[in-house]
Amino acid sequence: MATVNDSSVCSVCNKLPGKRFCMGCKKYFCSKDFKEHEKQLSIQFDNEIVRSHDELLDMIQKLEKPDDLSSDVFDQIDQWKKLTINKVKQAAERARHELIELLDKRRTAVTKQLEAITKEIRSHREEENFLEDDIARLRTKLNEIQKVLEQFTRKDTKKAIIATNDQIDWDRIIYIAKGEEIESLSLNTNTKWMQTGVTIAGGNGAGGGMNQLQNPVGLCVDDDRTVYIADYSNHRIMEWKYGVTTGRVVAGGNGVGSRLDQLSSPAAVIIDKERNNLIISDYNNKRIVRWPRQNGTQGETIIS
Asked: What is the separation of C-alpha 170 from the centre of its chain, rounded to a whole number of angstroms?
């Protein structure tokens, strides 16, 4: 750490010859001040390095007891479990009552239809009057009633009225948010995908309303599942938050044109997270535009 130099002066007292040289701070010290300097470095090492190391080690050891570390989160999970179970029970009970009411209505309607046929059958039997047309007509009516009854008495696996467990995305009902630097997404080769989709944007016919799209041709998704959509024929970029029924215009939307506040048939959009911008392929204007995501009133041409 130190070398001898008779020509230097101590950087602390500025009196005695600095015969000791510190390779860290590049200063000379006399023997007395050099010892004090070493002492201060030792204290600094203990306070800044050893203590921080011990605190991190303690945090890692606490991870071995997650109940103590995140008891509030576990409490939230337990509370969510209770609430969800209650809601599922309520939904099942409501569906049960609806099914009973539906069956009663259908049974009443079918009974009335069958009573009319019963009277006609008795009439034909009493009169001993049987014609081919009557038999065919009555057979048709009976077949129609049979089809209605079979909808409720025969299990139809192709047309279920109740969502099965496989149709519910259990992994997204509740999940723990993970830091990007800790976790990364990986897909198992045996992953089973849901066979039915849900509309997350638009779906209200073609148009220029805030709940409509017209020829959406490109999109990208942010970490919070916000979707940015290149609404080609409306000449705008729409932001659609997860779970909402309407979107908002975040770029363009001022009619078709080539001004900096306009777009012309945008075909693609991506997110520049570092600068918090949208990068837009402005197709008919033959340019790439950078547009601020937050309160951006116009874009900037970066490639043309």
From this structure: 13
- Of the candidates 130, 153, 176, which is a domain's last residue? 153
Whether residue 191 contacts residue 182, with contact meaning beta carbons closer than 8 Å, is answered with no
- pLDDT means per 10 residues, the chain with 304 residues, are 61 84 88 90 88 83 62 76 86 83 83 86 80 84 83 59 60 58 49 71 91 93 91 95 90 94 95 92 94 90 91
pLDDT of residue 101: 85
Q: Look at residue 61 in the predicted model and tell me its pLDDT.
A: 74
d(CA 262, CA 235): 8
For strands 20-22 and 277-282, give the pairing. Answer: unpaired
Q: How far apart are CA 236 and CA 253, in angstroms?
A: 5
How far apart are alpha carbons 67 and 75 in whole angstroms?
Answer: 10
The first and second tokens of residue 23, run together, are 């390779």
What CATH number did the domain enclosing 247 receive? 2.40.10.500
Gap between the Cα atoms of 137 and 120, Å rounded? 11
* Prediction pTM value: 0.41
* The pLDDT value given to residue 182: 41
Look up tokens 């570390």; give the residue: 69
What pLDDT was estimated at residue 31?
A: 87
10 in a structural domain: yes
Q: How far apart are CA 110 and CA 113, in angstroms?
A: 5
Residue 211 lies in a domain: no
16, 97, 194, 258, 274 from 289: Cα distances, Å = 67, 56, 36, 11, 16
| DSSP annotation string for 106-164 | HHHHHHHHHHHHHHHHHHHHHHT---HHHHHHHHHHHHHHHHHHHHHHS--TTS-SS--
Picking from 175, 272, 183, the residue whose alpha carbon sits closest to that of residue 220 is 272
Per the DSSP assignment, residues forming a β-bridge with 228 are 220, 239
Specify the number of domains making up the chain. 3
For residues 13 and 27, is the Cβ–Cβ distance under 8 A?
no
Q: What is the extent of the structural domain holding 261?
A: 216-303
